[in-house]
Design brief:
By secondary structure, the chain is mainly β. The chain is built from no helices and 31 strands. The strands form eight sheets. Strands 1-31-30-29-28 form a five-stranded mixed sheet, with no helix packed on it. It is globular and about 55 Å long.
């Protein structure tokens, strides 16, 4: 088992500080609450660990667990010697995985101190892709070294490794409830892998620009990928139908610079309402789209925030956004008149 001590714990057992410090805050002219900053420097990635805890990583080489509802840091992990590029969590557990420019992936447990409990070494260049299998047994990683690797989490052994020429991996995600893994690449393509055979089962038609990020809908039917670009050329996100390989459904156009992140937003519990997609861009804006019609329902401009590189939807009305210049932003989405959305920043940290 290496350093791995246990399987996973339920959400109810997630870490809580016994006597959390009251975060210093101030209300700016725009009524945005400023909490204690999560990082020093730019933030490259953010994801959710639970309903109120997020995990982020950045240029300061630190992995941070933050209670964004209460506005205070819960834990920080230091083990990488170069900046953190991606973080991932296993739902319902306290497991955290972080990838870095130091070519490694580290595994942490919120309930087992501040030392890494597992290390995954084998890539030759920066690791940009990171995804955990639905059963919590396997870890998929992708790198600029053109390799996709499949690891056994318990032993940290690399079970599968494949090199594809020019496949400089930019992001990886696991299809919910499936053996399929999707990855984007700097060669402008999207590939679907079968984790059982570690073979590419489908390659989508190449786009005009580098594919920067991808996400899969909760039902596993749709994939959204985003493109780099400049001056409004490229800069789009594309909705694909995974049930019809290579079938492009719609494109979301409106950003002026690279679209760095694209995510499906959770649907209301009742199933009513419009399915939504959110994108963030190097043009310092977040856009929310009608998934099916590609109509832009809201745009939030964060002037001075710099490139907005990562989004983490927490629920139907709350999204976390990572920026290069101004930390993490808590964004709220509320229904407005005419079917549009009211999108605003509530807090920064």
């Amino acid at each position: 088992m290496g350093k791995l001590q246990s399987r996973f714990r339920k959400r109810s057992e997630l870490y809580r500080a016994s006597e959390p410090e009251k975060a210093a805050s101030n209300i700016s002219d725009s009524l945005v609450v400023q909490y204690e900053p999560a990082h020093r420097g730019s933030i490259n990635t953010v994801t959710n660990l639970s309903a109120d805890l997020c995990v982020s990583g950045g240029s300061d080489q630190v992995v941070v667990v933050y209670d964004w509802k209460q506005g205070h840091m819960c834990q920080s992990f230091q083990g990488h010697n170069r900046e953190v590029t991606k973080v991932a969590c296993y739902p319902g557990s306290t497991w955290i995985f972080s990838a870095s420019r130091d070519k490694t992936v580290l595994m942490w447990d919120l309930n087992q101190g501040d030392e890494a409990i597992q290390e995954f070494c084998g890539h030759q260049l920066v690791v940009n892709g990171l995804a955990v299998s639905p059963d919590g047994r396997k870890l998929c990683t992708g790198s600029r070294d053109n390799c996709m690797c499949l690891w056994d989490i318990e032993s940290a052994k690399c079970e599968q490794r494949r090199n594809i020429s020019r496949n400089l991996v930019t992001h990886v995600c696991w299809v919910p409830g499936s053996s399929a893994v999707v990855q984007t690449s700097e060669d402008k393509t999207v590939r679907v892998w079968d984790s059982r055979s570690w073979q590419v089962t489908n390659t989508f038609p190449a786009k005009q620009y580098i594919q920067t990020h991808c996400d899969v809908s909760d039902n596993g039917n749709y994939l959204v990928s985003s493109s780099n670009g400049f001056g409004g050329q490229g800069c789009e996100a594309t909705l694909w139908d995974l049930r019809q390989p290579g079938c492009k459904v719609v494109e979301y156009r409106g950003h002026l610079q690279t679209t760095a992140c694209c995510v499906f937003l959770p649907s209301p519990p009742s199933g009513s309402g419009v399915a939504l997609v959110a994108t963030s861009s190097h043009d310092s804006s977040v856009k929310v789209w009608d998934q099916n019609s590609a109509v832009c329902l809201a745009t939030l401009s964060l002037d001075g925030a710099g490139p907005l590189v990562s989004l983490a939807p927490s629920d139907t009305s709350n999204v976390l956004c990572a920026s290069f210049n101004s930390g993490l932003h808590h964004i709220q989405l509320l229904q407005a008149t005419g079917g549009n959305l009211d999108v605003r920043v509530l807090a920064r940290f």
